[in-house]
Amino acid sequence: MRKALFPGSFDPITLGHYDIIKRALPLFDEIVIAIGVNADKKYMFSLEQRLNFIKEAFKDEPKISVITYEGLTIELCERINAQFILRGLRNPADFEFEKAIAHTNRRLSNIETVFLLTAASTSYISSSIVRDVLRNGGDYTVLVPDSVRVEK
């Protein structure tokens, strides 16, 4: 069984994340979306909100599950028997950053990283851009799945 882990903070999940996950479904038997918890990081959305946004977005997809974790991503992969880490690439800077992490993960484990390029239509979207649009009262709904709704 081909099992992939898609880690991130998902603060919040964006249409870019959504696109990568949907396009990865034919490649894997199971995809575990893993929300990383970093005590030193300040999030806009609570862990519960982020979990709910993702669960709602993929509620009709039996191949997808959502969990939270702390610690090394490769250790989580080993605990849940995931052979792959799924990552999306928007631009050359993403590639350089993700390449270093992928090489480190391969050095420390047998986990392979699979990269998918974001669709041209979502390549400009990041969670930080969504948060900035939200903070400034803009229409964030064009950047996120329908499950991400915020009371203004």
Description of the structure:
The chain is α/β, with parallel strands linked by helices and 152 residues long. The protein has one domain: 3-Layer(aba) Sandwich (Rossmann fold). Helix content is 36%, strand content 20%. It has helices at 15-24, 47-57, 73-80, 92-108, 127-135, and strands at residues 3-8, 30-36, 64-69, 84-89, 112-117. It has a five-stranded parallel sheet with strand order 3-2-1-4-5, with helices on both faces. The longest helix is centred in the middle third of the chain and has 17 residues, at 92-108. The chain is globular and about 45 Å long. The chain starts with a strand and ends in a 17-residue tail after the last helix. ATP binds at residues 9-10, 17, 88-90, 98, 122-128. Its EC number is 2.7.7.3. It catalyses: (R)-4'-phosphopantetheine + ATP + H(+) = 3'-dephospho-CoA + diphosphate. Homohexamer. It is an enzyme of class 2 (transferase).
CATH level-four homologous superfamily name: HUPs
Number of domains: 1
Helical content stands at 25-40%
Low-confidence spans: none
Radius of gyration: 15 Å
* Strand fraction: 15-25%
Can you tell me the CATH class?
A: Alpha Beta
Order of helices and strands: EHEHEHEHEH
Total DSSP E strands: 5
Strand order of the largest sheet: 3-2-1-4-5
Nearest-integer average pLDDT: 95
Largest sheet entry: 5 strands, parallel
Q: Termini, distance in Å? A: 43 Å
C-alpha geometry: globular
Identify the CATH architecture.
Answer: 3-Layer(aba) Sandwich
